[in-house]
Write a structure and sequence with these properties.
mainly alpha; 6 helices; globular
């Protein structure tokens, strides 16, 4: 069985691009809900891209993940979080440590 670090970079890149395209398509899956279920969201993913690259800005990384400027995506797709969503996110993120 292969391990994650042994995965070919081209395969990993293809899977990453497919994940990003899926998240772009599923704008109905809000970041707050992703955080509540999995402890990460599009912003986390864009932070990881920014960190891995080392030369791009947060805004550039977010535009790659969102497929548009973050402010535009937020205005078009992001609603206000409910207290329940915020609590689920808090509980979920606490598992990330």
């Amino acid at each position: 069985m292969r391990d994650l670090d042994g995965l070919d970079d081209a395969v990993a890149a293809a899977a990453f691009r497919r994940l990003v395209r899926h998240l772009r398509h599923r704008s109905d899956a809000e970041n707050i809900d992703l955080m509540g279920l999995a402890g990460f969201c599009r912003n986390c993913l864009s932070d990881w891209v920014e960190e891995a690259d080392g030369s791009m800005t947060k805004d550039e990384a977010r535009a790659i993940v969102y497929g548009m400027p973050y402010a535009q995506w937020k205005a078009e797709h992001q609603g206000d979080a409910t207290p329940g969503q915020l609590e689920r996110m808090r509980q979920s993120v606490s598992k990330n440590a």
